[in-house]
Amino acid sequence: MGRGGFFGRYLRVDLGQKRAEHVPLDEATLRAVVGGVGLGALLLGRETPPGFDPLGPEAALVLAFGPLVGTPLTTSAKLAFVAKSPLTGRISDGLSSSAFAIAGKRAGVDAIVLVGAAEEPSIVLVDEAGATLVPCPELWGRDFAISEASERLGQAYPDHRFAVIGVAGERLVRYAGIANDGRHAGRGGLGAVLGAKRVKAIGVRGIRPVPLADAEATLRIAKDLARRSLGPATEKYRSLGTVANLSTFNRLAALPTRNFQASTFEDARRIEGEALHETRERGRGSCKSCTIGCEHFFEVRPGQRPVKMEYENLFALGPLCGIGDPEVVLRASSACDELGIDTISAGGTIAFAMECAEKGLFPAGPLAEEARDLVFGAGERLLSMLEDIARRRTPLGDLLAEGSRRAAEIVGGEAPSFAPHVKGLEIPGYEPRALQTMALGFAVGTRGADHNRSGAYEADFSGKVNRFEPDAAEAAEHAVAAEDRAAVMDSLILCKFLRRAMDDFYGESAEMLRAVTGLPFEAKDLVEAAGRITLVRRLFNEREGWTPAEDTLPARFFEEKLPGGAAKGAGIDRARFARSIDAYHARRGLDERGFVPAEVAREMMAWMGGKYR
Amino acid sequence: MVTIELYGVARLRAGREVIELDARSLGEALLGLGATCPVLEPSIVAGGRLAPGWLVALNGAQITADPETPLGDGDVVVLVSADAGG
């Protein structure tokens, strides 16, 4: 083991047996997958049997830290929650930034793995000695907002930092998230995984410093990176935040609107980032240990607590649902955060239901009756729907708590053709027909439609490809490169907003790892790790039933052209898209159907452990 | 006459959304933009070129940073940050 960064062990907590043990991790394994999502994927495969129920006791929830957590490097206070998604049935890894990540790492572990299920609603308290299960009847089933539950936990255990689920996680909403310090590991329903284990919160207390192999070099790199993090490459995030995307995307006709029926929104001016900044901005914030400070808080009503808003929340709860009232969108975003549900999946699933309602697709009876006023633009109805979903308190709320794919299968008819998901994960705020390299990134993503594990939109926005009709090989090249870089950033773990502040991503990342860990990381090691991490995820998905048919998009994107704006008439050609998928598989080193070749799988499994095939 | 539309940080800094000027190429348009809005120099436009991290979408569609791109009467230059994601 090196001299810093890693502790060389993880804490395995068996909730059913009320037992915790430290399990060693060898240096070769840690070097191979780095940490974060890479380590999380590896441990998830090791700790679970093939075909397990993501909401069953045999499921594992992994909290994986990276080697840089707890160091002076900017944006490094991050961890990955990794599990099999109850929404997709495939791997899901949600990242979150907070003091929780630092405290967890400083408990002297590289990861925490929860297996089994508690007999009664409980919290898990972790420290260097191990873990304790504490019943929490006072918190479970009480309908507390996440902020209130967090506050109560903080008062009861002031030495611990907490990751908490909301009412949606308790009710097993398939896109419930996990919150810590106001940040959310939102995607894929990992909050439901925790809820199924009857765990309301995980508290961590860590006081052991993360060792640095070369403290002087680490500090020098940290200072330089912090300086660059304040340069022009991040000005957008500092000045306006990600909400700045909305007006640009609208102008480029890449803004998903009314459940992807259009890509421009007539009310975009009311909710665009520039307008919010001018009229409602009330402050900025940042994640723990971050110098960028991309969080922007906006006023809902005078006297009320301002709400943090990101582009994905804004698009999903605004244009995607046909809503252009900034107050409604801010309230909806806040409601998702307090109920503990993913904003993208919530907005996507409700937008899907709005289209079903407008087309009269709900079967006659309670569903159709409840959906009668669920029309695009109905802001107050959106707000009440979020509450119904999080509590599963009405027939329609219960249906939509299952996500758009399952809901569409139940509604039937033409509904599955426009349910806005890939592999069950609702599509983020990038219109695939207007950004067709990103469309490929969505289709092949191991987590489903995913803007965080594939940044292929950068190619579309770069002018290097024709965003309406990219060459198949070029699109595949860009999709692999974007996915690889994300795999490494999410394993280190560092914030992706640093990407343009780094001139030589793989070289600089290796330099950081050498300084922190003392291990001989080189750029080529990280290039190899990037591909390996993606293959580990794909092997897990293959084990859990992935088929090549899942690497696609909903029929709408092939069959309907965009109706207006700068992308008017754009559609995705099925044959060309199929060639792009084939090119991706070839570039990724997969076989012609997209499976990990048998000899590669055998070689990887030899060191991964666990049964992947 | 060419129209330049500003979005995001560029709009915030310039305090304007739209600028109209005569230009026969993107380079000429960017020179004119820099002269009209000096606050955009040099981090967004620099001497008739786009600074790193900035692009234009010609008429909202074709994305380019090439200053030789010809412009005609009525063209719209949409100035956008290349950091489109998040």
From TrEMBL, chain A:
Keywords, sorted A to Z: 4Fe-4S, Iron, Iron-sulfur, Metal-binding, Oxidoreductase
Family matches, as InterPro entries: Ald_Fedxn_OxRdtase_dom2, Ald_Fedxn_OxRdtase_dom3, Ald_Fedxn_OxRdtase_N, Ald_Fedxn_OxRdtase_N_sf, OxRdtase_Ald_Fedxn_C, Tungsten_al_ferr_oxy-like_C, W-dependent_AOR
Entry's family note: Belongs to the AOR/FOR family.
Protein name per its UniProtKB record: Aldehyde:ferredoxin oxidoreductase
Span of domain Aldehyde ferredoxin oxidoreductase N-terminal: 6-208
Cofactor(s) needed for function: [4Fe-4S] cluster; tungstopterin
An MF annotation (GO) of this entry: 4 iron, 4 sulfur cluster binding
Taxonomic superkingdom: Bacteria
Automatic annotation (TrEMBL), chain B:
UniProt-listed Pfam families: ThiS (PF02597)
Top-level division of the source organism's lineage: Bacteria
Species the sequence originates in: Polyangium spumosum
Gene3D superfamilies: 3.10.20.30
InterPro entries membership: Beta-grasp_dom_sf, Mopterin_synth/thiamin_S_b, ThiS/MoaD-like
Name of the molecule in the record: MoaD/ThiS family protein
SUPFAM superfamilies for the chain: MoaD/ThiS
